[in-house]
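QA checklist item 7 of 12: single-chain prediction sanity check.
[x] sequence parsed
[x] length recorded as 221
[x] structure emitted
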Amino acid sequence: MPVAPSRPRSILRLVARTLVITAAALIALALIRWQATLNWAGNYLVCSDPLEHADLIVVMGGDFWGPRVIKAADLGMQGLAPVVLISGPPYRDQPEGNLAVEFLVKQGYERGLFAVFPHHESSTLGEVLVLGGELARRRARRVIVVTSAYHSRRCAILFRLFYPDIRFVLAPAPDSHYRADGWWRDPSSRHFFFSECAKILGSILFGYPAERIAQWRAHTL
């Protein structure tokens, strides 16, 4: 007389079968609606939160006379935060934030609205880490972060991973080099899409854990 399978094994088989069917259905749906799926993936990189008043507006480095600084300056002029902090490494032997301020003043924005945070970091992860000390010094509890649209999801992930006690509001600036819809048709958009996806995975799987381990070791020594 055959032995009936145990109840736990039956449950495991049911769960496994359900997962396989669900995965197959999702893959089929993605294949049928491949353009919509790719558009969703392209738009995922763009993190745009509802705007709210904050203690500080932070502009990520890398664009000191373009859409990032103009977007941040406009938000500052709207009264969403008392200070626009322009972050960035040196450019031609001076902080790029200084150049951004001069550019914005010539555009008619008030000089007193801006502050400069110079550093020597060349990566987003490094910039997020050095900004943590400045956010703590300013006792910021709510921060609007302005960066390029394609870069905004990675910034959101890193800031929220490293500083969970601070509320970060992402305000992406428009970027003519990235089109979220139909990104696979445009060489520039394809480049940014695959680059950002790789960097997001690298940040989550390697960058964040490695930094946390380094911090833990530093505190235990």
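[x] summary fact logged: The first strand starts at residue 56 and ends at 59.
[ ] second reviewer sign-off
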